[in-house]
TrEMBL record:
Belongs to the tRNA nucleotidyltransferase/poly(A) polymerase family. It comes from the Bacteria. One of its GO terms (biological process) is tRNA processing. GO terms for molecular function: ATP binding; metal ion binding; nucleotidyltransferase activity; RNA binding. Residues 165-226 form the tRNA nucleotidyltransferase/poly(A) polymerase RNA and SrmB- binding domain. InterPro entries: HD_domain, HDIG_dom, NT_sf, PolA_pol_head_dom, PolyA_RNA-bd, tRNA_CCA-adding_enzyme. This is Polynucleotide adenylyltransferase.
Length: 475
């Protein structure tokens, strides 16, 4: 703010225009939280003010929004991002009364901010936002808040998670009354809020809250509605939706636990889950979604056999097709869509090896070859799934044996397979073709796979010279 405020004051004085700091920055300042989203409103000439501000800091000006335009000034070198918009209404009071929640309906004249400090007596608070901030309550500003913008229903839950606040009872009722309107929103906006929610801990709690308390989760994901009616069988004592939310909880318990896995496995998971898949969406975000949707195919796969036993054979395949459509509706990238598909389609694979009591080199190599770089994600979802199932079925059962099984596979993947996952780091097809006169029936890809297997099984060392010698032997 040391750079931003003086420049804006100069522009405001020159243009004779009032400029206000508004919204989330003030909220988080009062909560002693950091906030890189800095929003200003101006009485008039927002575009001109934004343009002059951008020029004054050598920043880039971006025009955003549709009918209600606002202007973003970005200076990546100084890590400055500022949004400037024209106030809505006749004055700042009217503008604040058109905002979403009382804790965001706060403003301060930038001329009254001294040394970057904001005092309560200078805050314009027309909706009692300071009182709600002190009480830890998310409350709507006006009764048509969710009619004006149904995305605010998701924002309410996101702020609950972000700030660890409670939702006002009247606000809850308004959301339930307007819940169907969220279906009419562009899915890009739904996805934006959904992935913000996935960034915080206890996602399972807020998914459950959206389902049981607000009834909006099924509006966003109608595919979950049939899951309420099925799922109870020999292995499950609750319906599929309840199990899926519980699986998400277990996955989060594992992810955020300190010392659940042995150190090198834990560190590998920490590094792996931070990786960006697309946009700012991480593998951790997608693991959470994968855990939630892992059994979404059960309603379509339900069968009753000749003994009267309910079975869900193939639910992972039907579920993968369903989650693919969900990903497309959410406008996720192809990479994200394919990862979610794989998480759901393959989540049973580690369990099959457990049931068969088979963790042989051959079995593990086969699984790693299928799962590749997504192995750790699917192992985690599989572990969460089996613990969520067994804890309810047999509460006194020792869960450590399932952890040991998955940890062994994760360790094997990290120490034996990961380094050869990209075999081109050791030897390339081009190098093989340059070294050997291959016949028409010899495929370079097959030779690379043979090298990968030989390294995994310990037949040769993981270097180019050993690989070339091995190829010479088998040709």
């Amino acid at each position: 703010m040391d750079l931003i405020l003086p420049r804006l004051r100069e522009i405001g004085d020159k243009k004779d225009v009032k400029i206000y700091l508004v919204g989330g920055y003030i909220r988080d300042y009062l909560l002693n939280k950091s906030n890189e989203d800095i929003d200003f409103v101006v009485e008039k000439d927002a575009e001109i003010v934004a343009k002059e501000f951008a020029e004054s800091i050598n920043g880039k000006l971006i025009t955003l929004g549709g009918r209600h335009k606002f202007y973003r000034v970005v200076d990546s070198k100084r890590n400055v991002i500022v949004d400037i918009s024209q106030l809505k209404g006749n004055d700042i009071n009217e503008d604040l009364l058109n905002r979403d929640f009382t804790i965001n309906s706060l403003a301060v004249d930038i001329d009254k901010i001294e040394n970057g400090e904001i005092s309560n007596e200078n805050i314009i608070d027309v909706a009692n936002g300071l009182d709600d901030l002190n009480k830890g309550i998310i409350r709507h500003v006006k009764d048509n808040t969710f009619e004006d913008d149904p995305i605010r229903m998701l924002r309410a839950v996101r702020f609950m998670s972000q700030l660890e606040f409670e939702l006002d009872d009247t606000t809850k009722r308004l959301i339930k009354r307007n819940k169907e309107k969220i279906k009419d929103m562009p899915y890009e906006r739904i996805t934006h809020e959904l992935f913000k929610l996935l960034k915080y801990r206890r996602t399972y709690y807020y998914f459950n809250y959206m389902d049981r308390t607000l009834n909006i989760l099924e509006e966003i994901f109608p595919e979950i509605e049939p899951m309420r009616e099925i799922g109870k069988c020999k292995y499950h004592v609750v319906d599929s939706l309840t199990h899926s939310i519980y699986t998400l909880k277990v996955a989060e318990d594992i992810i955020y636990a300190d010392g659940y896995f042995e150190d090198h496995v834990r560190k590998a998971y920490e590094e792996h889950t931070k990786k960006i898949v697309a946009s700012d969406h991480t593998r951790l975000d997608l693991i959470k979604l994968g855990a939630f949707f892992h059994d979404v195919g059960k309603p379509s796969a339900k069968k009753v056999d000749e003994t009267g036993r309910i079975r869900f054979k193939g639910h992972e395949i039907t579920g993968a097709e369903i989650v693919k459509k969900i990903a497309e509706r959410l406008k996720l990238s192809i990479k994200e869509r394919d990862l979610l598909y794989k998480m759901v389609a393959k989540h049973m694979l580690p369990l099959v090896l457990y049931k068969n009591n088979d963790v042989s080199g051959k079995a593990l190599y086969g699984m790693f070859s299928e799962l590749k770089e997504d192995t750790l994600d699917i192992l985690l979802i599989s572990l969460a799934d089996i613990i969520a199932t067994r804890k309810l079925l047999y509460p006194g059962e020792e869960m450590g044996k399932f952890k040991v099984h998955i940890e062994y596979m994760a360790n094997n993947y990290l120490t034996r397979y990961k380094e050869i996952e990209k075999i081109s780091n050791i030897i390339t097809g081009k190098e093989i073709m340059q070294k050997f006169d291959l016949g028409e029936n010899v495929l370079v890809g097959d030779l690379l796979e043979e090298v990968r297997k030989a390294i995994y099984y310990g037949k040769i060392s993981a270097n180019k010279e050993a690989a070339l010698r091995y190829i010479e032997q088998i040709l």
